[in-house]
């Protein structure tokens, strides 16, 4: 848990993650059988792999978001009514705290306050789940999907073919079951970004290379809403991805810089994340956005 701008300098601690896991086991009164990422995005997608390497525990190919979201309750597990408690948060100095709540929103608030006191980043263990609950409520095969996306980009580079063409071909293939479309092509011309309350929040403006249009993207750790000329192009829970237009490398919110030439793509979220109940948790309303959710594949070009 923490702001990406902080994590850039305050590198997450593998040892602290293991400490959080061991305290989690004490609270549960049993050993865990496996670990999994809470989100398939950023550093949180890789930390369970580090914990698995340090402990020998298997890592489940699934997560609770199908992407990255900034808040603890924004998971498919919470949508299903499952508790995040016990919530264990540890820092790199040896402090380990246990937060027990009846509500996952309260868990987010309390843990976020502690995270800020820990310097803006902390390592967490939470959401105890059974195998049945994972099969029913998790977003499955997201780690392997991330690997396949990397393979598509790497293979395109080796063949010296068009990276974006190959990437979009993969993202729209039957293998992924997703929809994807190019939203905008341009240059970063303005960034408003601040770290507050344990989040990196702001807006990035991207101008068309020919000066004929502008895209505005709002973010809170992750990209939330993209609009151009007052017209909505994509909104959470669908993914908005800003990529370097030459290499297709992702540019996360903390790495946005003036002058970057980028392509912005929208990718559909899995159906489990688009239900009416799910949209109340991590759709536009969950972030205080006034926009209505429109599937990225339904937005008119």
Question: If you had to describe this structure to a student in words, what would you say it looks like?
Answer:
- This protein is an alpha+beta fold and 301 residues long.
- It folds into 2 domains: 137 residues, CV3147-like fold, CATH 3.40.1610.10; 92 residues, CV3147-like (Beta Barrel), CATH 2.40.390.10.
- The chain contains 9 helices and 12 strands.
- β2 and β3 form a beta hairpin.
- The longest helix is centred in the middle third of the chain and has 18 residues.
- The relative contact order is 0.14.
- The model has no long low-confidence stretch (mean pLDDT 94).
CATH architecture of the largest domain, please?
3-Layer(aba) Sandwich
The CATH homology group name of the largest domain: CV3147-like domain
Summarize the helix and strand pattern as letters: HHHEHEEHEHEHHEEEEEEEH
> Major β-sheet, in short?
7 strands, antiparallel
Uncertain segments of ≥5 residues (pLDDT<50)? Answer: none
The CATH topology of the largest domain corresponds to: CV3147-like fold
Mean of all residue-level pLDDT scores:
94
- Cα distance, first to last residue? 36 Å
What's the gist of this structure?
29% of the residues lie in helices and 25% in strands. It has 301 residues and is an alpha+beta fold. The protein folds into two domains: 4-140, 3-Layer(aba) Sandwich (CV3147-like fold); 179-270, CV3147-like (Beta Barrel), CATH 2.40.390.10.
Task: Give the SSE layout.
Layout: H1 4-7, H2 14-28, H3 47-55, E1 62-63, H4 76-79, E2 87-90, E3 96-99, H5 104-117, E4 123-125, H6 131-137, E5 139-140, H7 142-159, H8 163-171, E6 180-196, E7 199-208, E8 214-220, E9 222-228, E10 231-235, E11 239-244, E12 261-267, H9 276-282
Antiparallel strand pairs: 1-5, 2-3, 2-4, 6-7, 6-12, 7-8, 8-9, 9-10, 11-12
Helix pairs in contact: 2-3, 7-8
């Amino acid at each position: 848990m923490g702001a990406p701008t902080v994590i850039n300098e305050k590198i997450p601690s593998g040892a602290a993650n293991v400490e959080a896991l061991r305290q989690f086991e004490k609270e549960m009164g049993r050993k865990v059988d496996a670990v999994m990422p809470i989100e398939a995005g950023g550093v949180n997608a890789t930390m369970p792999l580090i914990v698995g390497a340090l402990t020998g525990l298997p890592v489940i190919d699934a997560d609770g978001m199908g992407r990255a979201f900034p808040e603890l309750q924004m998971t498919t597990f919470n949508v299903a009514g499952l508790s995040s408690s016990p919530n264990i948060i540890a820092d790199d100095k040896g402090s380990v705290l246990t937060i027990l709540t009846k509500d996952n929103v309260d868990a987010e608030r309390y843990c976020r306050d502690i995270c800020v006191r820990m310097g803006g980043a902390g390592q967490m263990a939470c959401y105890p789940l059974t195998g049945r609950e994972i099969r029913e409520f998790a977003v499955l095969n997201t780690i392997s999907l991330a690997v396949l996306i990397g393979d598509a980009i790497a293979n395109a580079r080796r063949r010296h073919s068009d990276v974006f063409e190959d990437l979009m071909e993969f993202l729209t293939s039957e293998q992924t079951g997703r929809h994807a479309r190019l939203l905008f092509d341009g240059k970063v011309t303005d960034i408003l970004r601040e770290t507050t309350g344990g989040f990196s929040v702001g807006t990035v403006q991207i101008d068309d290379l020919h000066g004929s249009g502008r895209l505005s993207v709002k973010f809170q750790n992750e990209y939330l809403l993209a609009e151009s000329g007052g017209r909505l192009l994509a909104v959470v829970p669908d993914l908005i991805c800003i990529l370097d237009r030459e290499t297709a490398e992702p540019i996360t919110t903390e790495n946005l810089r003036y002058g970057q030439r980028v392509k912005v793509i929208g990718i559909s979220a899995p159906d489990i994340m688009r239900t009416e109940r799910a949209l109340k948790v991590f759709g536009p309303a969950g972030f205080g956005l006034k926009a209505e959710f429109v599937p990225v594949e339904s937005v008119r070009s």
